[in-house]
Amino acid sequence: QVQLVESGGGLVQAGASLRLSCAASGRAFSRYTIGWFRQTPGKEREFVGGISWISGSTYYADSVKGRFTISRDNAKNSVSVQMNSLKPEDTALYYCAATSQVAVYTTKERYDYWGQGTQVTVSS
């Protein structure tokens, strides 16, 4: 089992950057693919990006491609997402999630463990 805790959210202006972190505890973190999702009130939780545990390959939603970068540090049991050129439409509660699957899945049902989320608010 894996426990996940997100941090790094905040209020920023459009064009600014933030770095979110997902700290994990539990067994064999290095063997979990990590996904990042976000959700706004009244909307479905949507996929942002993810990183595979076996290849280190990353995959991003079109809406963040070129602006967000996901990386992991297995020695620190941590995955981060560097978010640049933030837009007001990036405002959401951001979650990290873990799955033992090799691939990065874009559907939330594929993930077994979730953090509590960290709020990102981007003002125009």
Any overview of this molecule?
This protein is an all-beta fold. It has no helices and eleven strands.
Structural shape? globular
Strand content: over 45%
- Major beta sheet summary: 7 strands, mixed
Q: How many angstroms separate the termini?
A: 40 Å
List keywords for this structure.
11 strands, four-stranded antiparallel β-sheet, 124 residues, 51% strand, seven-stranded mixed β-sheet, mainly beta, globular
Task: Detail the topology: elements first, then pairings.
Layout lengths: L1 E6 L2 E4 L4 E9 L6 E7 L6 E6 L6 E3 L7 E6 L4 E6 L8 E8 L13 E2 L3 E6 L1
Parallel strand pairs: 2-11
Antiparallel strand pairs: 1-3, 3-8, 4-5, 4-9, 5-6, 7-8, 9-10, 9-11
Summed up, what is this model?
The chain is mostly beta strands and 124 residues long. Helix content is 0%, strand content 51%.
